[in-house]
Design brief:
The protein is α/β, with parallel strands linked by helices. Helix content is 31%, strand content 24%. The chain contains 11 helices and 19 strands. The chain has a 9-stranded mixed sheet with strand order 17-16-19-14-13-12-1-15-18, covered by helices on one side. A hairpin with a 2-residue loop joins strand 13 and strand 14. Helix 2 packs parallel to helix 4, helix 8 packs parallel to helix 10 and helix 10 packs parallel to helix 11. The radius of gyration is 24 Å and the shape is globular. The termini are far apart.
Length: 485
Amino acid sequence: MNRCLLLFLSIPMLCRAQQDSLVVDWGKTQLVSKSVATLQVVVNPPLRRGSSIHDASFAALAALGCDYVRYVPWLPYPKLGVAELQPPAAGRTFWDFSLIDPLAVDFLEATKGHSVILNFSTIPAWMYKTDKPVPVPANADSAVWDYTRGTAPLDSTLNEIGSYYGRLYGWYAKGGFRDELGTLHSSGYHYPIPYWEVLNEVDFEHNNTPETYTRIYDAVVSSIRKVSPETKFVGMALAYPDRPEWFEYFLDHAHHKAGIPLDMISYHFYASGSIPQGSPVMQYTFFDQADGFLKEVKFIESIRKRLSPSTRTTVDEIGSILNSDNGEPNAIISDDYWNVSGAVFAYVYLGLVRIGIDVIGESQLTGYPTQYPSVSMINWKTGKPNARYWVLKLIHDNLGPGDVLVNTEVVGDGIVAQGFTTSRGKRILLINRSNRGITLALPPDYQGAIWKVVDPSTGDNEPAAIVIGTTGVELKPFAVGVISF
């Protein structure tokens, strides 16, 4: 009995003594990546001119240099995202870009030279049937969560909604537009806007069905194409992608007007949890949710390939949300949460690369208390980028379309790894999905390579750069790093 007990106790000791190690077969190709890493910028008061973090936030955006950056003025701030808050009356219209332009122009200037996806997601409330007019807060910075009332548009032909978006596009891309009464409104803006996403999380707003949303999509696309035939469009932006009926309906070209393009679809993923869980629990719940989402993506891809194989995909909101964001916006978020969240994004990014998703977008540049603080990539107190930002920059600077994924294996538990051959040299993405530190043994020929890593020790600073020696690399809890040769 004693000898059996001794043997039993020795087994976990032997397991712990075994060092994790990495094996990469650089000659064995798995697939070629077509994935672009990017982010979304949601309109929030801290991004307005005069905010203490305005300059730093837009400088951080410009420094990323991403393509397909998504810009979303949305429902909590009608004055910052809806350009016509009242219907035409008494021989005049009420178009007003005075509060909208500074934000939009700062975004377009910060992303100049890179492709963008604009999504003015909120339809003017007066375009829907409601019991009474929907009020707009006098303070533009006051969040209102019930602006999108009504389920039936006043104009059943949807020409009114379509024309609104055609004029919005014209304001920023074509120098202006003529309003409902024929009056010319000149902006002087001629920004290239190659992609327009039609509304946001349409499975929630206005209680849309696949059928009602598809009609709105067609109306908006038709209107913008009259102004800009070359523009491409993104559809759906679903909050919850576990709804196959949406993909089955929208991706069936027979349900659209003749000639309406289905250039790209979009949907979202957020891992969810609570502050009391802490990283010891999040290491399981967050990554389990990520695995479930990646299974959903494979199912969605089977629908897309069957119905509309030329349609591309952007998963344009990826992140994590703490339950306290809604009920306790000023709750204290622990420092290690940002590393957990960054590791989740890196993990989902790698999974989507392996599936073949075109655009992979982290959410969001700037959040703050009352407006999803746990989703922010910027420290709203200091304006410094946090670990979530630095993970995206690390990935964007090292990996991209055309990279070749090669056979990669980790002996051990907790580390996810993928080797890439790129035009910049060999790269290995490493992710520690656990809350324990792990030392990873490497072959001798890795000595002298550079290990750049985001982990709890780097805080709100850029990744640490370390020359690899004889002891391999250390991955602190939830570290995300890249080895470059």
